[in-house]
Queue: 4 jobs
Job 1
Amino acid sequence: MDIKQIFKNNIDWVNEKLQLDSNYFKTLSKGQNPDILYIGCSDSRVSAEELMGVSPGDVFVHRNIANMVPNTDLSAMSVIDYAVVHLKVNNIVVCGHYYCGGVKAAMESADLGILNPWLRNIRDVYRIHKEELNAITNQDAKYKRLVELNVQEQCINVIKTAEVQQAFIDRNITVHGWVFDIHTGKLIDLEIDFKKVMENVMEIYRLKR
């Protein structure tokens, strides 16, 4: 891609927005009030706002390799804190996608250097669900299922945080697990029973206030 073309595209985008609303950027600069925190993958094929059909200001977005939420990642933890405590979002979405390179790499035994500690989190997901995954003989189906299970486990990691537990008590915040199917372009709701998961998690991870 020609980098100069990006700036030309930007000018076209600015003009398009101003034609629709001459105060568009003045309004945008006043602040943000999103209702959703979206945690997704950094994959270049997966654009959060575009696949959801939302506009700037509608969604607070955090992306990393394989949409992970490890409690040791200060970036992810800071995003959750800011979105939940300060922006007061009412929905948190963890969105994975089929044919995720990070999940595929975690299924392999290769030494990937600096990526190893990060991928270890996904390998832990495999370990937790080893019995189910090892029973799947089709590699493509196993790959897709690990993507889904990884989303599920990252939702649980979100629920473990003090900010989300308190927001659940205060305003009934909800956590959703989705998968983006690159083959069809459709979003799939994994229909995770958030309240049931919350009850199970809080039995061990409950933080008293």
Job 2
Amino acid sequence: MNFLQLNEITIKILKDTEEMLKGYDSRIFKAKVVQALGPGGQRKAERELEWNRKTVRKGLYELENNVCPDRLHETGRKSSEYHLPNLLGDIEATVKPPSQADPTFRTTQLYSPLTAGEVRRRLAEDKGYSDEELPCERTIRNKLNDMEYEPQKVEKTKPVKKIPQTDAISDRVHSISKEADETEGVVRV
């Protein structure tokens, strides 16, 4: 039986290949290399390739028992929308009516006078959610930000205090008003 011989080039190729792999694929690769090294392969892999024996053993177990790969994408906490599919629609229905656009029209962001706490309270009252099933106030704030609602009051646009033509316009209005006062037959409305 021909077993894999380790030399500098083979070691470099194996290390580089292993570094490119992650998780399950890396463990299976290591297990196959150890099998190819033959008897004492785990020790050789640990000494020459600097691979952890526990990782190699886990890979050998997965390879021999046909264990399926890691499914990390299926782990973790589910989002609020997973448990409450209508939540985003109900949040939008609650926030949209009192919302206003940016008065300067510089952004497309909508401003709402409702805070996340107020939105949560209205969802419980108007939409019939229980307090326990609703996400916390911080989560609702994050959902509002994702939906591009800025929970703050809209600032009114402030008029420009004085433009260069202000004095000329005022003088013109005063002169026309004075002429109208002096002219007979002109009725001011």
Job 3
Amino acid sequence: MSGAEQFGPLPAELQRMMPRPVRLTGAGRVVMAAALLSALEAVVLGTWLYERARRSQLEAEQRRRAAAVADGVVVAVRGAGNSAAIVEYEFRVADLGYRGRFRSTSSRARSFQPGAALKVAYLPANPRVNWPAHQPPRGLPFWISPAVAVSSLLVAAGLGLWLRSQRRLLEEGRAAVGSVTRVEKIRAKGVGFRVHYEFRLPGGALQAGRYEIQRDPPPPGTPVVVVYDPERPRRQRRYPFPLVRVATD
């Protein structure tokens, strides 16, 4: 006896000849748009960040070359007990006083006590642009551009594969009607439930599966429509799918 005969009839659209015609649902169109936007972001944002890093590196090099050095003094160290601290300093150029600050690790900040001498680099044309001489400006690193681009491409690929897997399964998968066997509460994920079910393969063997739901879990014995890969029955999904549907037009 087949799973469909045992637990109920299949939906009419799943009885169509395979490959079934498939369309995106509203959620599927959102996922497709997000995948395309992520791919576009990889190109646009990656290019923009590369250009910004190039300009930032050039500007930092120009500042290092043009800098003069003055004797300064530490005036305050804030947040020394944290993982990072802020060191404030002051220095004088042509009898005018200027101030600055920089970040330092908490352990190194202990060596910058108020009153300690500090070499300060500054731009002669504008001493308000200054930095501690031991921390010259480096500019935005070039690795940020490929890192952001790769991250965006991975998101696009993940969304695309998620959509493609549902489409292929619904197009070519075999449908069966199974039954809920048990329900368990998911304590590690907050409020939610894991629903276990079984359905019968054409050869008579039972195949188990499960899905998760946030609330109102079905009681044991409730019919469950499943679409599965005939060659790999463990590759399965409860029907209807969130991202694709069988086209009825």
Job 4
Amino acid sequence: MSTTRKVTTTYMHHASWSALPKEDQELLKLAQRAARNAYAKYSKFKVGAALRMTDGEIIPGSNQENAAFPAGICAERTALHAAMTVMPRGQVDTMAIVVPQVKGRDPVTPCGICRQALLEQENRQGSPVRLLMGNVRGPVLETFSAESLLPLSFDSSFLRK
């Protein structure tokens, strides 16, 4: 017997950056600034990320492409892996993601690999990672956990013990 189940995602939609607290606006600005350091020679799609650790430390990241696709790395994972390299027991509080030159007004959300990496970080630290996905000229989407972007996710419970 088969059953249908429904998966829902909860997020907040903010009309603009100015609708957010100053510390979140600053994190979005730092992500926008990080996008300037992107190496997007092939896609021309520059992405910036900035994450705030629970101790207040800010770590930026930008996408870095390579002619040998898919050898590049996204901005979200660049920032996340840099943070975990220097603070292996650190905890990520919030990550902002900005694509300065995006078509349309909708913010860009993380790709599937980045969603998986963010979910792994949540499992690693035992607490959610808040995400701010902003468009420079428009709205911000806010989730209170990376898990909300990756329902029915894969985790260590599937691995042989």
